[in-house]
Design goal:
Chains A, C: Pfam families: Dak1. The complex is a heterotetramer, with two copies of chain A (322 residues) and two copies of chain B (206 residues). Chain A has eight helices and twelve strands. Chain A has 322 residues and is α/β, with parallel strands linked by helices. In chain A, strands 1-2-4-3-5-6 form a six-stranded mixed β-sheet, with helices on both faces. In chain A, strands 9-8-7-12-10-11 form a six-stranded mixed β-sheet, with helices on both faces. Chain B has one domain (2-205): Serine Threonine Protein Phosphatase 5, Tetratricopeptide repeat (Alpha Horseshoe), CATH 1.25.40. A two-stranded antiparallel ribbon of chain B has the order 1-2. The longest helix of chain B has 21 residues, at 185-205. Classes of the chains: A alpha/beta (322), B mainly alpha (206). At the A-C interface, helix 1, helix 6, helix 7 and strand 12 of A face helix 1, helix 6, helix 7 and strand 12 of C. The structure holds adenosine-5'-diphosphate (ADP) (2 copies) and magnesium ion (4 copies). One magnesium ion sits between chains C (79-80, 109) and D (35, 37, 78).
Chain lengths: 322, 206, 322, 206
């Protein structure tokens, strides 16, 4: 394992220190935790947004803390959900009385830990709502789907809504609207190495890829022969579209998300094909994101995310922060 | 059958020793069908729990296990943190105010623990999770009273039995049929829990 | 070689297509070239900025085209300088009559090709100036130094100056000021694979790293035993500072630039230590950049860049775009 | 010694064939001390030059080599593009208006080419670049007139001699002492240029 780290146990805390040291005007850490909040939290009268999960997905989640986006991010160990007490600290630090929305990815660990934190917060009379993201169409049963890159679109759109001063119920409804209308699918060409284990999560031959990978360095739902970028893109886009109800004239946002080690160059090659495919179907792409938004350490691969836009989501996304 | 506060303390300490010893194996099992952190999660959490237990003195088994549970909840994270944490928290409630547990009282705790895992994780027997071990152990205790040696054997057998199953809950479920052929890591850590119980009971009795 | 591409020969043109398709409101490509210009180029009355070089450094250079930054970027083949005729096309497309500044990295190829383009442009009566970036202190002779990540700070600061309406001479002087005051040094833990060759550029053992690597996947100036993040950072920062004249109280900008495959998490661990080291020396970090600004495909590693700020550079950097 | 327009055309085509043939070796040499693209750069550029020459008909050798030079300049990029491009552009100027080259005229072109490379790249003999081949070949021509067989031999010997040198210009110079022990890729591509010359001259004469 070759990593620029000092020791497996300090990774997350040193990353948090680095984030705050690099952006002291924007960010602040809560002592003795791996919670990062806006420097000016709590923002009076504003609904607060919290996201989080295991570390190793950077820039998610702490990279989204800031004006017009999240109020706090909670970082667990690498690929391990944070504990309820850390989430509670975040909730207490950002609540201004207007309530708190937790943005949770649908993994057993995240769901349970955030749920316990919500219970603890309610016991302290803080109003907490949750939206659970399940955008990964690689899993066929919609209830079991993981939350992946689409989560970052919830950060942006719900973040813009909260910044406008909308109420907790309104922000929750908007966030839920994004969650209901966003779908993703990923492919990986090479695994990543979780620092604590020191070994790659799996091995792939030179001509193999994993289709339907999540964001925790796991294998996907199927191992396949490596294909060219256009064919891979077609497969991912088709899978995503099969699960959506888009018509000729539908408006969408598109995200091509790198898993960590894939050069931006390749992501743009994928974006090119994805945009072509959507255009061929009469779908209007109003906004395209290409880059790393939700990574899996240094995994090689990418995911395609499509969000069906209604007028409100479109307005919030185009006017908001990225 | 009786379990004193001293033996119950030993149980927690022994679980920790087992998790440290099998840390790599647990993570390897998790790497095959999950994300490879189960050993680290267990080792980190039970080490903290052992420290807590060592630093305090308890007459009340309920208080002791409440502390263990809180430590697990706040130090483990992932799926296993809330699940083991809830399990021991529910058991602690059942053991509140007691400085010794007879077979019935211990069983009540295990029953409550299983209930906690089920409520929290919404899994059932056969889903290839830790419950695949806990449920048969509980059933046997309810039926025949606590026999720690038997519980140990059942746990080992049931952990083994997860190998052939397809995971229905947790990360391993994302693999579908590909999850077959690997033991569930949480089932193996649960086996270690009951292995520790058999050992400390035997030592305490002798 | 496992890459999300369709064929080695189409990589650059398909990347350019993808860039323009993804950001049609912002970018436009010049037909039959790999030149990307601002959608609204030429901007009347504004000095135009052009950067470029081989591809494989994304987001450099095309990612910097936009308001307040570059007017055009010219992409050569992977790690191969673009040809003079392509640079000339860029010059012609962005010149509004206020003149054009070429931002050139000090590699034989870049220098020669841009120089030939400048000659061709002068022949067409376009006023062209050049600033050559030599920030890589891994090379001891200052004249021979390569242009690396520090180049992106020239994009930002000269871009802000041009956006303010400064004249070509003024923008050139500011860009030259950045070039004279910026220093970088890189380290690599794993090589990258140039698509055309299909094989990694070199091999490193599990316990080895290359110190002093450039941005073209080459080996560095020295092979060393792998060290922990803090020790690596100390080495890079010290090397950079040794070549600068900073005092207690100096103000700087800091950039921790990822080479492609290094997770942001690790870059923040490096940033944390670099900031500490500068603070220990009484140096004030006014702005920190952590991320991928100038990559070498999927190389693993990072570089540290420090820019000495005077009042003007500070103002332009803090008010400008990133 | 005379080189007709037909032989000069064959020269350009043969250079291309050699670059295609040795593409991988050229890139491997470049991978050792540069960035691994020299073979691809040469193959891409000379292929385009060959296409250009094949698609046109020339009486004037100057015009033919000006087209070759422009093609190289606009299709190669990198360091070698401007250098080979400038070399052939300068030679083309010297050959302007001629449909056949005697020894003196050909040598003038080579002299101009070397001057172009020197001005463009600011390197000297011994810097471990293509000039390490071009300069001795030019010197020999100036002294003894054009002997293509001899030029071929000298080019091969001088390319070989770059192995022991430390690079002073181009990417390889960044490696300092580590550049020793590898042949300079541009020196080898230059050797191929003169190897092609000897072959087409021999074929043309027979
Ligand atoms: N919903 C659930 N119900 C019961 N047990 C579960 C559930 N989800 C996961 N588990 C157990 O947790 C184990 C994985 O724990 P761990 O690896 O520590 O957490 P994570 O999956 O978050 O990485 C699985 O092997 C399984 O036994
Ligand atoms: N300044 C220079 N003068 C003469 N030749 C040079 C110079 N710089 C580079 N070269 C030649 O160019 C060759 C490298 O060409 P190539 O790999 O195509 O370009 P790049 O170095 O841009 O990747 C070197 O082997 C060397 O012979
Ligand atoms: Mg985990
Ligand atoms: Mg796990
Ligand atoms: Mg090159
Ligand atoms: Mg080269």
């Amino acid at each position: 394992m070759k990593k620029l780290i000092n020791g497996v146990d300090q990774i997350v805390s040193e990353m948090v220190e680095g984030l705050v040291a690099a952006h002291p005007d924007k960010l602040r850490a809560i002592e003795n935790t791996n919670v990062i909040v806006r420097a000016d939290a709590p923002v009076q009268g504003k609904v607060a947004l919290i996201s989080g999960g295991g570390s190793g997905h950077e820039p998610a989640h702490a990279g989204y803390v800031g004006e017009g986006l999240l109020d706090a991010a909670v970082s667990g160990e690498v690929f391990t959900s944070p504990t309820p007490d850390q989430v509670l600290e975040a909730i207490k630090a950002v609540d201004s009385g207007a309530g708190v929305l937790l943005i949770v990815k649908n993994y057993s660990g995240d769901v349970m830990n955030f749920d316990m934190a919500a219970d603890l917060a309610e016991a302290e009379d803080i109003t907490v709502k949750q939206v659970v993201i399940r955008d990964d169409v690689a899993i066929s049963n919609p209830d079991d789907r993981r939350g992946v890159a689409g989560t970052t679109l919830v950060h942006m759109i719900a973040g813009a809504a909260a910044a406008e001063g909308k109420s907790l119920d309104e922000v929750e409804a908007i966030a839920q609207g994004v969650a209901d209308n966003v779908r993703s699918m990923g492919v990986s060409l090479a695994p990543c190495t979780v620092p604590a284990s020191g070994k790659p999560g799996f091995t792939l031959e030179e001509n193999e890829m994993e289709i339907g990978t999540g964001i925790h360095g796991e294998q996907g739902v199927e191992r396949r022969e490596l294909m060219q970028a256009d064919a891979v893109t077609e497969e991912l886009v088709q899978h995503v579209l099969d699960d959506m109800h888009l018509n000729d004239g539908s408006e969408v946002a598109l995200m091509i998300n790198g898993q960590g080690a894939t050069p931006l160059m390749e992501l743009y090659i994928v974006a090119r094909k994805a945009i072509q495919l959507l255009k061929d179907r009469g779908i209007h792409v109003k906004k395209t994101f290409v880059g790393e938004y939700m990574t899996s350490l240094e995994m090689t691969g990418c995911s395609v995310t499509i969000l069906n836009l209604d007028e409100e989501r479109k307005r919030l996304l185009l006017s908001g922060r990225e | 059958m009786e379990l004193s506060a001293a033996v119950m303390k030993q149980w927690a300490l022994r679980i920790n020793e087992k998790m440290q010893e099998h840390k790599d194996k647990l993570s390897e099992l998790d790497q095959a069908i999950g994300d490879g952190d189960h050993g680290h999660n267990m080792a980190r959490g039970f080490q903290e729990a052992a420290n807590k237990v060592n630093d305090s003195s308890y007459d009340d088994i309920g208080t002791m296990y409440k502390d263990i549970a809180s430590t697990l909840i706040s130090k483990v994270g992932g799926a296993s943190g809330p699940l083991y944490g809830t399990a021991f928290l529910k058991a602690a409630n059942a053991w509140k105010g007691r400085d010794v547990l007879d077979s019935e009282a211990f069983t009540e705790g295990i029953e409550a623990a299983v209930g906690g895992i089920e409520t929290r994780g919404k899994a059932s027997f056969g889903d290839k999770t830790m419950l695949d071990v806990w449920i048969p152990v509980r059933d046997e205790m309810k039926e025949r009273g606590v026999d720690t040696e038997q519980a140990n054997k059942t746990a080992a057998k049931e952990a083994e039995a997860t190998i052939d199953r397809v995971a229905k809950k947790g990360r391993a479920s994302y693999l579908g049929e590909r999850s077959k052929g690997h033991m569930d890591p949480g089932a193996f850590s649960s086996q270690l829990v009951f292995e520790a119980l058999a050992e400390v009971y035997k030592e305490g009795a002798s």
